[in-house]
Amino acid sequence: MSDVPGIGLEAVMTPAPTAVPSPLPSMSTVTVVPSAPPPASSSSGSESVLPAVVSGAFLAAMITATINILLARRKSREEELNRLRTAFAEAFAVHSAYKEMPYAIRRRRSDAPAEERVRLSEALREIQANLSYHLAWTKIESEAVGTAYAELVQELRKSAGAAMHAAWEAAPIESDAAVNIPPTVIDLSALQPLETAYITAVRAHLRTLTRWWHW
User: Which of 17, 49, 144, 178 could join 173 via S-S bond, C-beta 3.0 to 4.6 A?
Assistant: First the structure.
C-alpha cells in the first residue's frame, strides 16, 4: 500500500499521539504581582536641610546675645564714667562752697547777729563734713586724684580759713556798695594752681578708664 520501503501497514495506520494539555492552575493558587517601588522620599533632603536651619538659627541667636552683652557692658561703663564725673565735680563743688564762706560771713545780716552766727556756723559744719568725705573718697578712687584734692583742701583751709577768721572780726556789711569785696580784702589766688592740678588729675584718671574700657 505504500511505496516507501521498510514501513509496514501498522505504521501507517497508527495515529500520532495527541499532546496532553498541562493542568490548569487551581483556584486557590495566589498569583503574587510585584508592587511598584515606592516613590523616592524627600525625608533625606529634609534631614540634611534641618541641621543647617538649626545651626543658622543658633548662630544668629549667639551673635544677637553677644551684641546685647557688649552693648550692656558699654552702657554700664558709660554709666560708671558719668558717676565718677559727677562725684569728682561734687568734690570740687564742696571746695567751692568752703571757698565762698569768707564772703558769706562778711555779707551776714547786721540786724540779726545771733541768728547769722548759728546759720553760718551750721553751713560751715556741713561743708567741713563733706570735705572730709570727699577727701577719703577721692583717695580710694584714685591715688593721684586723692593727692591733688588733699593738697587743694589743705591750701583751702589755710587761705579761706584765715579769710573767714578776718571776716568774723570785721563788721557786717551794711551798704550795697560794700557787697563787692575786692581781692585786697579776700585774696584766695593761691588756690588757682591747685584747682588746676586737681582738674588735670581727674581728667587723666577718666581718660585712663576710658582707654581701658574702650571696645
Answer: 178
Annotate 59-94 with DSSP letters as a single string.
HHHHHHHHHHHHHHHHHHHHHHHHHHHHHHHHHHHH
Say if residues 205 and 144 touch (Cβ distance below 8 Å): yes
d(CA 74, CA 66) in angstroms, rounded, equals 12
Q: Give how far Cα 53 sits from Cα of 45, 74, 201, Å.
A: 12, 32, 55
| Gap between the Cα atoms of 84 and 86, Å rounded | 5
Question: Is 84 in contact with 168 (CB distance < 8 Å)?
Answer: no
Indicate whether 215 pLDDT > 50: no
pTM higher than 0.85? no
Q: How far is the C-alpha of 193 from the C-alpha of 198, rounded, in Å? A: 9
Confidence class for position 53, pLDDT limits 50, 70, 90: low
Residues 47, 33: Cα–Cα separation, whole Å: 33
Give the residue among 207, 215, 101 at the shortest CA–CA distance from 156: 101
Where does residue 149 rank: exposed (0-12), middle (13-18), buried (19+ CB within 10 A)? buried
Q: How does DSSP assign 150-215, residue by residue?
A: HHHHHHHHHHHHHHHHHHHHSPPP-SSGGGS--TTTS--GGGHHHHHHHHHHHHHHHHHHHHHH--
d(Cα 55, Cα 42) in Å, to the nearest integer? 21
